Amino acid sequence: MTGNLKKLAVCAVVAFGGVAMAQDQAAEAPAREPVKAPSGDAVKTTWDYFYKGQGQGPVLVEAKLCTEVAKDGPNKFECITEVAPEGVKANTSVMVWQSYLVPQGDSIEDLMVQVKQGNVVRETKDVKVKGDGWRARQWTGVRLSKPGDWSVVIMRGEQVLKTFNVKVL
User: Fold this and answer.
1) In whole angstroms, what is the distance from residue 91 CA to residue 144 CA?
2) Positive or negative CA dihedral for 103, 107, 60, 134?
3) H or E element that contains 2
4) Rounded CA gap, 80 and 66, in Å?
5) Distances (CA, A) of 152 to 67, 113, 116
């Protein structure tokens, strides 16, 4: 009798375990919000730039100051925790997460991230991106070492593409 009970228990686990696992995975998956479809003109302009815009440089599509970038899962390589508006503690490492549209085949090597405390430049890091696909993502780690008002600036040559102001506590 106990042998039959064991077999019945194993069958129940096999039969219902998959359903339970599917429910767990469904519960973990983030809800997807509807995304607005771009206009045909917007798509054509993007295609034209990607396929025919060689030599014109990158387009900074999005940039965030993050404390965490996902290493795997559905949000792999995405900024998942942004720096809070109230700032960060001294000696915090943050990542300057960047997403670019780079014309197909181009290699951009004149981007940089500059970190300033007040008006004093504390660090400058080179950034390189390639037009291998629709989106070139890059995150550059920097350390905000002392309390005060800081700025993190994404630049291409002398041109400022984006500035983040950060309070370091």
Assistant:
1) 5
2) positive
3) helix 2-28
4) 7
5) 14, 7, 6
Please name which of 103, 126, 113 lies closest in space to residue 55, comparing C-alpha atoms: 103
Nearest CA to 53 out of 137, 154, 131 is that of 131
In angstroms, how far apart are the furthest CA atoms of the chain? 81
Q: How far apart are CA 133 and CA 93, in angstroms?
A: 29
Confidence at 5, pLDDT banded by 50, 70, 90: very low
Q: Is the pLDDT score of 59 beyond 50? A: yes
Closest to 112 (Cα-Cα) out of 140, 77, 150: 140
**For the residues 71-98, what does the mean pLDDT come to?**
92
Q: What angle do CA 156, 160, 165 make, to 5 degrees?
A: 130
Is residue 50 within 8 Å of 103, Cβ to Cβ?
A: yes
Residue type, 1: M
Tens digit of each residue's pLDDT (9 = 90 or more) over 114-131: 999 999 999 999 999 999
Q: Which of 27-36, 76-85, 122-131, 146-155 has the lowest mean pLDDT?
A: 27-36
